[in-house]
Specification:
It contains no helices and 11 strands. It has strands spanning 2-5, 8-11, 16-22, 32-37, 44-49, 56-58, 66-71, 76-81, 90-101, 104-110, 114-119.
Length: 120
């Protein structure tokens, strides 16, 4: 189970910090991702972090603007989003990585999501 928070409406160039509190599994042993889904579009992977937080990967379009992190003592995943653009508007949710197909993560359990809306 996940409880996501931190979404909202901001203007272009603004910032938001998303949080995802996980429960029901041993959080620290799983890689975790943020995934987003814009209206009328399919899910889009945004970022993944490994279990101890030492390795991160990002969608090219968010590199340098978004930072994924985790606090295993609090079973919490974060996404700091800076310099937001209208194209970042989407429902953002956290997801547990169950494995990889090549370098692409596969996800099993996901949260309900938190809405991010960026106005121009």
């Amino acid at each position: 189970q996940y409880v996501e928070s931190g979404g909202g409406m901001v203007q272009t160039g603004g910032s938001l910090r998303l949080s995802c509190v996980a429960s029901g599994f041993v959080f620290s042993i799983y890689d975790m991702s943020w995934v987003r889904q814009a209206p009328g579009k399919g899910p889009e992977w945004v970022s993944t972090i490994n279990g101890d937080g030492s390795i991160t990967r990002y969608l090219e379009s968010v590199k340098g603007r978004f930072t994924i992190s985790r606090d295993n003592a609090k079973d919490t995943l974060y996404l700091q989003m800076n310099s937001l653009e209208p194209e970042d508007t989407a429902l953002y949710y956290c997801a547990r990585v169950e494995g990889y197909s090549g370098t692409s993560p596969r996800h099993d359990y996901r949260g309900q999501g938190t809405q991010v809306t960026v106005s121009s």
